[in-house]
Amino acid sequence: MSDLRDLYQDVILEHSKTPRNYRELPAADHKAEGFNPLCGDRFTVYVTLDGDTIRDVSFQGSGCAISKSSASMMTQSVKGKTLAEAEKIFERFHEMVTGHAPAAGNESELGKLTVFSGVSEFPVRVKCATLAWHTLHAALEGKQDAVSTE
Ligand code: ZN
């Protein structure tokens, strides 16, 4: 992958146009705000837990195609998972987009999140792709301060 256009695969464009779970959760028991000043991406992530299982997760905000589609796909991949499972997916995803682990071999855990593997060739975009994940993490940790990627 050498062309920026290749980064914006159909599935990424589609999720950025029609993000999933894009709503406020009024009954959320965890929420956090995340901001990526480098790009201007800003999201709030809402979570409702059932014991240590993520019963519902959603987000709202604005950002570039990469950040928005990543947030959208994140909500789909962690919903119904336990906190430990969600943390594991985040670790794998982070390793993949920072180029520390190949997407190949991790498909079973990452599923369609592997469409973001090309992000590792565009370091500026890594913060876009991981913003929602860092924000989810902060929400679950109960952090009150907004998360910033800087
Ligand atoms: Zn961005």
Description:
Helix content is 43%, strand content 19%. The chain has 6 helices and 4 strands, in the order H-H-E-E-E-H-H-H-H-E. The chain has helices at residues 4-7, 10-17, 65-78, 83-97, 107-110, 123-141; strands at 30-36, 41-50, 53-62, 147-148. With 150 residues, the protein is an alpha+beta fold. The chain has a 4-stranded mixed sheet with strand order 3-2-1-4, with helices on one face. The protein has one domain (2-148): Sufe protein. Chain: A (Alpha-Beta Complex). The protein binds zinc ion (ZN). Zinc ion is lined by residues 36, 39, 41, 63-64, 66-67, 128.
Which characteristics define this entry?
19% strand; binds zinc ion; alpha+beta; single chain
Q: What is the average per-residue confidence, as pLDDT, rounded to a whole number?
A: 91
The coarse silhouette is globular
Question: Whole-number radius of gyration?
Answer: 14 Å
Strand content: 15-25%
Total of DSSP H or I helical runs spanning 4+ residues: 6
CATH architecture grouping? Alpha-Beta Complex
Which ligands, by name, code or SMILES, are bound? zinc ion
Class based on secondary structure composition and strand pairing:
alpha+beta
Amount of helix: 40-55%
Strands, count: 4
CATH topology descriptor: Sufe protein. Chain: A
Distance between the termini: 27 Å
